[in-house]
Amino acid sequence: MAKQKLIAELPVLQVRYPRHGESKLGTKPVRFKGGITGQRVQVQITKRKEDYYEAKILSVVLPAHNERRVPCKPFGECGGCTYQRMYYPEELAYKEEQLRVLFTEAGLDLSGFVLHPSPHDRAYRNKMEYSFGNAEKGGPLNLGLHRRARFHDIIDTSGCNIVDTDFETIRKATMAFYREKGIPHYNRLRHEGVLRHLVIRSSETRPMIVVHLLTSSQGDPLVAEYADMLQNLRLQSRLTGFVHSINDGMGDVVQSDKTRIVFGTPDIIEVLHGLEFRISPESFFQTNTKGAELLYEKAVAACGDLSDKTVFDLYAGTGTIGQILSRHAKQVVSVEIVPEAVRDAKANAKRNGIKNMFFLQGDVLSVLDELKDAPDLIVVDPPRAGIHPRAIPKIARTGTGSIVYVSCNPVTLVNDLAAFQAWGYKAVHIECVDMFPRTPHVETVVLMSRVDK
Fold first, then answer.
1. DSSP labels for 210-231?
2. Quick one: pLDDT band at residue 4, thresholds 50, 70, 90?
3. Is 194 helix (H, G, I), strand (E, B) or coil?
4. Across-strand partners of 259?
5. pTM value?
6. Do residues 157 and 144 lie in contact, with contact meaning Cβ atoms separated by under 8 Å?
7. What tens digit of pLDDT does each residue of 202-216 get?
8. Which strands make up the sheet holding 115-116, listed edge to edge?
9. Is 408 a catalytic residue?
10. What is the 3-class SS of 179-203, one letter each residue?
11. CA 217 and chain centroid, separation
12. Which sequence spans correspond to the domains of the chain?
């Protein structure tokens, strides 16, 4: 007979960044994902380690003193947000303390930082990727997000408060349209069906919304009829484009084998720091526009006076940071491995009349090997996994006096800062921006200076 798993009711004693709750069962630590300090939760022990237990939260028995009635209907079922039960100032203080513990335990003297609030803590997202599916086998078609801890269940996210009303209008109308037509969703286990994803993107600074429908090639999604329905919706903004893509890939990711523009333009135009950026459906762009503007403001300030300096922008993406810095620097060299991102960066630089920026398409490791003259300053904005371990010594060997590290993952950031410290660079200033309210994610800007000259 299988050994029955222990269920216990425990207090949440601490939550470490980003969502690692801790308690004690007897004298042994218990670790689980989620929770808020001060809650009392029911957990199931899933693994018994020598020094601690691993567990999962089954339910919240007693809320923490700083929790409130949740203003978001799908919260609890949806796997997106974590801190909907907190008032925003308390959420900021809570995340700031988690970051302070993370930095202190990593031996970094960064205790004087402040977590800057997002300009908007509701309806801040300019992009949503919804999935078609159902909440239970044989249930009605849903268009929404994955259920927490149950990846194959898709829940209706009506009442989500981090998206604006136009997103909800389009999502609900799409769900109703395809429910009426009886077109099946794509089954991720059997790889059968038609409807896969709906991506909605909007501009904060222009009246623009683009809808991107992704289906398999296994049936007719009635694109023309669906397009007519979209164009008759009453929106606060303006629907400027509709794109349909075929995706026959096995993975549950938003990707396109074949794309067709049904009407309008597929691109969104966004304005940051007075510069225009055209964003194609495949391009990465920060999902909180006003938060991104604040983040880049902190990055520019960290760079200091650039009037006679050459800046290298590594992991540049579509060149957003580099183009903002180009107005302050002598010249900026942008390095990015993805050809489509380099193409978009060049087009945006031309659109903005930027002439002191140069673009290199290639891997950071290779580009740094070919570098002849050291830049005055290097900006790095790597993906969540951080900087490749082989790239850190290459960056350090350039001899640049300063490095500005823009990070979307404080955990990999502290690891990379420790590696840079071994190469003679010390973190001297940090700014944190709460780019994604109600979630555990935080963006940081760190200035490092060379100390072994």
1. EEEEEE-SSS---HHHHHHHHH
2. low
3. coil
4. 245
5. 0.92
6. yes
7. 999 999 999 999 999
8. 115-116, 425-433, 443-450, 402-407, 377-380, 310-314, 331-336, 357-361
9. yes
10. HHHCCCECECCCCECCEEEEEEEEC
11. 29
12. 7-65, 100-119+288-450, 127-272
**Both tokens assigned to 32:** 């689980």
SS3 of residue 382 by DSSP:
coil
Q: Would you identify the CATH topology of the domain 100-119+288-450? A: Rossmann fold (3.40.50)
Q: What are the pLDDT digits (tens) for 222-268?
A: 999 999 999 999 999 999 999 999 999 888 888 888 999 999 999 99
Total count of residues recorded for the chain: 453
- Token code pair at residue 165: 């009303």
Phi-psi region for residue 353, left (φ > 0), alpha (ψ -120 to 50) or beta?
left
**Confidence band for 1, pLDDT divided at 50, 70 and 90:** very low
CA dist 64 and 90 (Å) reads 12
- Does a cis peptide bond (omega within 30 degrees of 0) precede residue 18? yes
Residue 66: the pLDDT is 86
Domain 127-272 is of which CATH architecture? Beta Barrel (2.40)
Structure tokens at 349: 């630089």
Active-site choice (72, 78, 81, 408)? 408
What are the beta bridge partners of residue 347?
none
**What's the pLDDT score for residue 2?**
52
**Contact between 194 and 131 (Cβ < 8 Å):** no
**Rounded Cα gap, residues 319 and 110, in angstroms:** 28
Predicted confidence (pLDDT) per residue in 15-54, tens digit: 999 889 999 999 999 999 989 999 999 999 999 999 999 9
Percent above pLDDT 90 for the chain = 81
CATH architecture under which domain 7-65 falls:
Beta Barrel (2.40)
For the segment 283-336, what is each residue's pLDDT rounded down to a tens digit? Answer: 889 999 999 999 999 999 999 999 999 999 999 998 999 999 999 999 999 999
100-119+288-450 shares its CATH topology with 127-272: no
Q: Are 309 and 329 in contact (CB under 8 A)?
A: yes
Task: Record the tokens describing residue 167, joined without a space.
Answer: 């997103």
Compute the chain's Rg from CA coordinates. 24
Q: Which residues of 178-196 are buried (b: 16+ CB within 10 A; e: fewer)?
A: beeeebbbbebeeeebbbb
Q: What share of the chain is helix, strand, coil (3-state, %, to 5)?
A: 25, 35, 45
Instruction: Give every strand in the sheet of 150-156, ordered side by side.
Output: 150-156, 142-147, 127-133, 195-202, 209-215, 239-246, 258-264
pLDDT in tens, 108-139: 887 678 899 999 999 999 999 999 999 888 89
Q: Which residue has the tokens 């397009």?
A: 227
Q: Above 50 in pLDDT, residue 438?
A: yes
